Structure formats: structure tokens, C-alpha cells
């Protein structure tokens, strides 16, 4: 069974989620001091968990789509990862994650929302992949 991870790349944190046996679990977010450090930390995470497929959230639609996609693709190029890289629309995932967390915890800057957004991105990708296999 393939091991799949997803990342939600932000300017301050990178949300991370993994999927084993069809269950998607958010992980601790990676704090981002700079892009090289964040890329190293993500590369280590992917190696440690022996990830086969990395799903990366990219924004679709909106005025900054092209610029954000370029930045995300550049960041992904810094990763030391031999597996497959897939891109998934992340539109609204952070808003959805914040709504899921309301009343559970105060809105802390600890990365929980970022990793919950990565979980949502991965679940969307899994649904899309399953749907494509059924066609």
C-alpha cells in the first residue's frame, strides 16, 4: 500500500498530513524560518515516513493564482524527494479548517489549522483519484 502525504505551504508554517490505509491524519506543522530550512525539514519528514506520493496544495482561481503556483512549484523543486508529486486545488481548505476548529481551541498560531488544511487537501485528492479510477 502506498504511503501518501500532503503539504499546505504557507509563509510561516507548512501544514502536513499523512494517509495510511485510507485514514488521513494531520501531523505537526513545520515552522518555516526560511524556504531552505522548511524544504530540509519536509524532505526529512518524507524520508522518515517513507512517503511514496506527495500531494501539494495549490490555489486555483483568484488574482494571484499564477504567482502562488510559481512560488509553490519552486519550493517543491527544493525538496529531496524521489516519489511522485501531485498537485491538488487547495481553494478554501484553510477556511474550512478554521471552521472545523471553532469552539475546539482558540485560534493559536501552532500550525493545527495548517495541518488540518493539509488533511482536507489530501482527502480531496484521494476522492478525485478514487473517482478517476472508477471512470
Description:
The protein has about 140 residues and is an alpha/beta fold. The chain has a single domain (about 5-135), classed as 2-Layer Sandwich (Nucleotidyltransferase, domain 5). Helices cover about 45% and strands about 25% of the residues. It has helices at about 35-50, 65-75, 95-100, 110-135, and strands at about 5-10, 15-20, 25, 30, 55-60, 85-90. Strands 1, 2, 3, 4, 5 and 6 form a 6-stranded mixed β-sheet that branches. The mean pLDDT is about 90.
- In the residues, how many domains can be counted? 1
Please tell me the overall pLDDT: 88
The CATH architecture: 2-Layer Sandwich
Question: What is the makeup of the main sheet?
Answer: 6 strands, mixed
Spatial shape: globular
The strand count comes to 6
What order do the SSEs take from the amino end to the carboxyl end, as H and E? EEEEHEHEHH
Radius of gyration: 14 Å
Judged by helices, strands and strand pairing, the structural class is alpha/beta
Strand content: 15-25%
CATH class: Alpha Beta
Report low-confidence residues grouped into runs of 5 or more: none
CATH superfamily membership: YqgF/RNase H-like domain
